[in-house]
Amino acid sequence: MRILWIKTELLHPVDKGGKIRTYQMLRALVRNHHVTYLCLDDGTAGANALAQSQEYAQDLITVPFVPPAKGSYKYIVALLRNILSPLPYAIARYQSVSLQVQVAKLAPTVELVVCDFLTPAVNIDQSLQSQAVLFQHNVEAMIWGRRAQVPQSWLRRAYMRLQAQRMTKFETAMCRGFRHVVAVSADDAEVFRRDYAVGSVSHVATGVDLEYFAPAPGVRRNAMELVFVGSMDWMPNDEGIRWFIGEVLGLVRKRIADVRLTIVGRSPTTALRASIAGQPNVEITGTVDDVRPYLARAALSVVPLRIGGGTRLKIYEAMAMGVPIVSTHIGAEGLPVQDGEHLLLVDSPEAQSAAIIKLLQQPGEAARIADNARNFVQLNCSWDAVAAQFVANCSATRLAM
To answer: What is the pLDDT of residues 200-228, one digit of tens each?
Structure first.
């Protein structure tokens, strides 16, 4: 089958959840299908990203794209102009006439068009949407709605509410407009059916590279080290770990004074760096080439997210490496995992700290949960199986062109 895959970015470096899911899915798909990857290119991915596209697509077509840098004068002007727009800014900033032209040119040459994430959908004509697949990694409006509920200034909260309302309207229209929607969890699929009245929707599981994320024999774990892994320029990750530092970590230290926390992920914010001022034994790594050494040496992985949608690949990666996990319910939302069997799910600061203390002080219990979790992903979470399910879900939407 010939597939046109549309996205707003190149995949390398493969350094965040959405990229990982797409990269692994396409790596499996190109073994049996011909993929043309069409994307915006803002020039930041580097020259290697173009050559490495051969790993996930037979053909690559890029469209130059220069969005205003966050915090810049042009960025502020764009935000102000967006006040009068019906589109949320997170969508409007990806409008591209050049991309629209390429989509219209390439669509008639393939059998299946896939819009990867909601953001490229603004560049796909309504007549083509009715024959294409929308691959939804999150329920975007849910994320924005949760952002509006986080404690913040009244002005910022009002802005978030406005963006959430616009995102709900846009996401509803897109999900109804595309011929089929593929979600990343049964929970998300149910939201699209119930809240957006989407008739044709399915879901695929989250996968993990079991060969890459495998236990590291001989690596000695630090019995008192916690690790958080995630792209720190994604607001839910930043908000969650800052909440953890401010509300949970101190409670753990009252019982375990020498506990350590390592925060692994690209582009840590100024607010995050400020939150660890005066905090002992807290390290922020920034971008790393490989997260596995940090997972391998940690006693526990923490996922204290209070905002989010979709599914967190970081949970399956830790499970595959045999690292016990303490997460909020939102952090593990959409994953078919069981509290007390595959990980511990707790939400309040007191419950979070108690769960962490328990697993740090009871290594046998931590090992039981880690073993259960690794067995689960080995049986259920290969990317080949996920890709095969994706193709099966899309089979009814092939374009007769």
So the answer is: 999 998 888 889 999 988 788 888 999 99
In-domain check, residue 353: yes
Same domain for 37 and 22: yes
Q: Please tell me whether residues 23 and 44 are part of one structural domain.
A: yes
pLDDT digits (tens, 9 = 90+) for 64-114: 998 888 888 888 898 888 888 999 999 999 999 999 999 999 999 999 999
Question: Per the domain annotation, does 215 fall within a domain?
Answer: no
CATH number at residue 323: 3.40.50.2000
Q: Are residues 195 and 133 in the same domain?
A: yes
Say if residue 281 is in the same domain as residue 341: yes
Domains contained in the chain, number:
2
One-letter-per-residue 3-state SS of the chain: CEEEEEECCCCCCCCCHHHHHHHHHHHHHCCCCEEEEEEEECCCCCHHHHHHHHHCCCEEEEEECCCCCCCCHHHHHHHHHHCCCCCCHHHHCCCCHHHHHHHHHHHHHCCEEEEECCHHHHHCCHHHHCCCEEEECCCHHHHHHHHHHCCCCHHHHHHHHHHHHHHHHHHHHHHHHCCEEEECCHHHHHHHHHHHCCCCEEECCCCCCCCCCCCCCCCCCCCCEEEEECCCCCHHHHHHHHHHHHHHHHHHHHHCCCCEEEEECCCCCHHHHHHCCCCCCEEEEECCCCCHHHHHHCCEEEECCCCCCCCCHHHHHHHHCCCCEEECCCCCCCCCCCECCCEEECCCHHHHHHHHHHHHHCHHHHHHHHHHHHHHHHHHCCHHHHHHHHHHHHHHHCCCC
**Is residue 131 located within the same domain as residue 277?**
no
pTM (predicted TM-score):
0.76
What does the block give as tokens for 158?
């009002």
Q: Amino acid letter at 81? A: R
The reply to whether 278 and 356 lie within a common domain is yes
Please tell me the predicted confidence (pLDDT) of residue 46.
Answer: 77
Residue 219 in any domain: the answer is no
Strand partners, 344: 326
Domain range enclosing 242: 225-380
